[in-house]
Amino acid sequence: MTAPVDLLAPALSDAIARALGPEFAGADPVLRPSQYADVQANAALALAKRVGASPRDVATRIVAELGDLPVSIDVSGPGFLNLTFDDAWIESLLADLAADERLGVPTQEAQVVPIDYSAPNVAKEMHVGHLRTTVVGDALARVLEHLGHRVVRQNHIGDWGTPFGMLIEHLLDVGEGSEQALLLESDPNAFYQAARAQFDGDEDFATRARARVVSLQAGDEDTLRLWSELVELSRRYFNRIYATLGVTLTDGDLAGESTYNDDLAGICDELEAAGLATMSDGALCVFLDGYTGREGKPQPLIIRKSDGGYGYATTDLATIRHRVERLGADRCLYVIGVPQALHLEMVWETARLAGWLPDHVEVVHVRIGNVLGEDRKILRTRSGAPLRLMALLEEAMANARREVDRTRPELPEEVRASIAPQVGIGAVKYADLSVAHDSEYVFDLDRMLAYTGNTGPYLQYATTRIRSIFRSAGVDPRFEAPISLGAPAERALALRLLAFGSVVAEVGDDLAPHRLCTYLFELAQEFSTFYEQCPVLKADTVEQRGSRLSLSAVTLAVLVQGLDLLGIEAPERM
Ligand code: ARG
């Protein structure tokens, strides 16, 4: 199942080769949207010079070779080919789409795609940046899986490093299982801040914390047990957030920094043996051509600090080896903040030089832009208090609940209670997804929750409106009947529906979920126009009613499937 444009392109290419000669085989027909037709082909203008004829002449020669296509064509202006698809053709493509459970989405040749996303830090609050990588990464995982790829989720949590000395000592001081220890499950920053205050204010505590880091690194059994207690409590906190968000991450996807502990010494040895790493001021560093820092000084990638400890760069080198060698990756995605671009580039370059990242493996930084507060600074606090992600999500759900109570008081209490999280969370997730993932945006709950505009609730509402048409009609929304196109709004809707598969494929290629959002938003708007202009339940004939119900059914299926690929639920009513 493909969109008419995708089917037409090869026929046009062939006609170009037949008309202009075999040296033009595979020429791009240069298809563009048009105001005057369904699509415009500008190849004649692009090729005229090479052919040595006027564009209009070239256009006429191409048309003469097009043969029998289900389109009407006219040559306009200097040599544009305006192509209008025959209604019968669109109708038959749409019938195929309606019968296709994949709704036109192709199944691609399977690749192994590890996706690094979410990656919060143990004993710390998840912030809105973590929220965004979680939501975007999860949408990419869903889309790529749906396209047939083997996605391996990699949650690279920050579960190792020097802060664990102070965190463990604080855990011992407050007592395992104490109320303060359990803060790690609900308000991790409170625990972290308390540990930090001890460390900064109490010399004895600081000395114990430093000694604890040494025992942790030495693999002392009791220390490791306390460390895993901290990780376990944090895991419960992460999982509460994940469950609230409805993301697909599970415990099986955890592959935190500590996973790679045993690999780090070997990585340093190999890099040193290969002559790629050298000692500089007591630290083991990789210096790469073209990377300079302040004052033009070479910028090092530090892989072993002067105190012997390993850092973020070394564990990320380990992630590459793991994903390439053990997971068999074809394409690795790192869904991480924009500021980490340089870090990733240097890590990848080092891995390439070391032979750990072969050319056939693609690595992509899916850059996550900052989420800003109303003051246009990175959103960290709300009304003075440090931002708690759970509180933010709860606020979104509470606001959604208020709106449902106001607009649908007649719905039973338990129905309203189940709609509110779907709408509140859908709104927050959609806001993260609907702007390009690498651009900044201002976090504004009121705007996200609006039922109008390019928002989650608008799209969810569009699906419930279609469901209510089916309730009034007394038929199942999986309705199928022959579709015949009459009104322009029906035709526009049909063409949009036929594009779904290629949009999803494009999101898989370009890793840009906002394109799917734009598509769904435009589809919902086109459905609205159709519904205003084309009576469904009061259609003129039984056939017309059937056809319009069928169009509505396909629209509903595409909207629900599209939202599901974004990780957004579609309530039955709202
Ligand atoms: N834990 C890090 C942070 O909170 C993000 C880790 C991203 N993943 C990676 N492989 N470096 O900033």
From TrEMBL:
Keyword match Cell membrane: no
Any one annotated GO CC term: cytoplasm
Stretches assigned to the DALR anticodon binding domain: 459-574
This protein's UniProt keywords: Aminoacyl-tRNA synthetase, ATP-binding, Cytoplasm, Ligase, Nucleotide-binding, Protein biosynthesis
Record field: catalytic activity: tRNA(Arg) + L-arginine + ATP = L-arginyl-tRNA(Arg) + AMP + diphosphate
Main location as per UniProt: cytoplasm
Motif 'HIGH' region positions after renumbering to this chain: 120-130
Transmembrane annotation, as ranges: none
Signal peptide interval: none
SUPFAM superfamilies from the UniProt entry: Anticodon-binding domain of a subclass of class I aminoacyl-tRNA synthetases (SSF47323), Arginyl-tRNA synthetase (ArgRS), N-terminal 'additional' domain (SSF55190), Nucleotidylyl transferase (SSF52374)
Listed GO biological process terms: arginyl-tRNA aminoacylation
Domain Arginyl tRNA synthetase N-terminal: 6-85
EC number(s) stated in the UniProt entry for this protein: 6.1.1.19
GO molecular function, one term: arginine-tRNA ligase activity
Subcellular location: Cytoplasm
PANTHER family: ARGININE--TRNA LIGASE, CYTOPLASMIC, ARGINYL-TRNA SYNTHETASE
Subunit structure, as described in the record: Monomer.
Family statement drawn from the similarity comment of this UniProt entry: Belongs to the class-I aminoacyl-tRNA synthetase family.
Record's protein name: Arginine--tRNA ligase
Higher taxonomy: Bacteria, Bacillati, Actinomycetota, Actinomycetes, Propionibacteriales
Gene name as annotated: argS
